[in-house]
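Note on ligand handling. Small-molecule inputs were canonicalized before submission; formal charges were left as drawn, and no protonation-state enumeration was performed. Where a ligand contained multiple stereocentres, the stereochemistry in the source SMILES was retained. For zinc ion, this procedure yielded the string shown in the input block below.
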Amino acid sequence: MYVLGIEAATPVAGVAVVEDGRILAERLVNNRRTHSVNLLPMIKAVIEEAGITARQIGAVAVSSGPGSFTGLRIGLTTAKTLAWIWQVPVVGVSTLEALALPLAPQGQIICPILNARKNEVYASVFRGSSGQAELLEGPLALGIQELVQILQQWEGQVTFLGDAVPEYKQQITDLMGDRAVFAPQSALLPRGAAVAELGYRKMAGGGGVPPLELAAEYIRLSEAEVKLAARCGK
Amino acid sequence: MSITILGIETSCDETSAAVLVDGVDLRSNIISSQIEIHKKFGGVVPEVASRKHLENVHPVIIEALEKADVTPGDLSAVAVTYGPGLVGALLVGVAAAKAMAYALDIPLIGVNHLEGHIAANFLAQPDLEFPLLCLVVSGGHSDLVYLPSRGEYRLLGRTRDDAAGEAFDKVARAMGLGYPGGPLIDKLAREGNPEAVQFPRAFLEEGSLDFSFSGLKSAVLNYLNRAAMLKEDINKADLAASFQRAVVEVLVEKTMMAVQRTGVKTIMMAGGVAANGGLRALLQERASAAGCRVVLPPLHLCTDNAAMIACAGYYKYLRGDFAPLTLNAVPALALGHDKY
Ligand SMILES: [Zn+2]
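Structure output:
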């Protein structure tokens, strides 16, 4: 089965086509242009580069959150629309799990962190086990100190990756010392291939939903809803 | 062969999709309004609106197709609003339209939201003769647009601060009437005396066709504050009528100036405020005195909807004016200056 993977939850636009989990073609763009401009031409190109036609795609996997609200919506709208027209299922994939996946075989604690503004990150904690990222905690939106607190409960080194690493690297090192290790640049960015691979696995495991059923995992309420809730004393 | 256009509109707080055949046969026009949601916030909240668009866009498109008895494969093109509007909201419609155009291998058409409002007039009357003038008045716009020929737009005047609809909303909120303000004030104004309170009319410098409503808005707010301080009762109907008259007089006066300058014989109206009873009555009166006719889209096509986008898209389709798959949302898109 051919699975198209779409990753647009962070400033990186990533697209890939996998055949039974094997990567056929992948594109990644981190050029600060909006996904709205990049994404669809990338999808078109990757399908052509995979040497297949769009109608051969058997499922569309998409990074469904957490991440940038706008990025998520562009990715989800695109994925759901394509799947609806092609009459194939969609698979929502955790942005954080897709980030952790390439490091999974190392068998250690992996903590992807994404910029969530307001001095917080979106984070999950995974343990790599036989090519999978086993979820231990999350997804959460929280401050770095709070995250480090949570990480106390597991022993050994923690590998951090994700687009919030440059901003918080020093602070994490100060708090955790040499327990904290950081992934190399090439493993720092979310990849369309990881989304497609996870999507394929979920499909193989009986996952995938009709296109209209997939929703974004924002994790956070909008600013206005938070304020309204506060005003209503809820 | 007939030309079947799907229109998609998500620029503000309505998620809408419509199917239009051959420019006049409106098969469906589904509008999912978020007005109840935004009421609790006292106005449109961009992030909340964008989230709702993502939830609504597919059900609305599917309903529009089903009601029109059309399958995606029957579509000739997809037309979508790509600006002006709220960027996060626009992006949902744009992403859906682009994915449809690509997956169906049909042309993508980018439509300016104002071009859509103006095109609502052509839905009912496709044979209007150019040149035309259009007064576009809504929550986001107060524009005087001259159309020398089809597809050509010249902005003669625009608001320098608040849009007319925005002034209505703000004044309605200050008067404790609620949201959206336009229809509430219009209704109340019918029972009031428009001469009761003297409010300023901003005509700006000699010959200008621009608008400014912020001074008027402040004058109303001052009036309310003063009354509150002196613990005076205010007659809300009189206040609404006087405020509305001040807005309408300026709109109509400038429209008639534009008529004189361009020599048009037909004045179109567009946008949500075009539904305002006071505005329609006065414009009608002044236009017929000047030997002009006033054209108004059906009321349900004055507020944001996708039928008007499909209609504007239809004429672009005829011209072969298509957008590439790199089409982006342009929140401050200027009329007549497509960016793709
Ligand atoms: Zn509008």
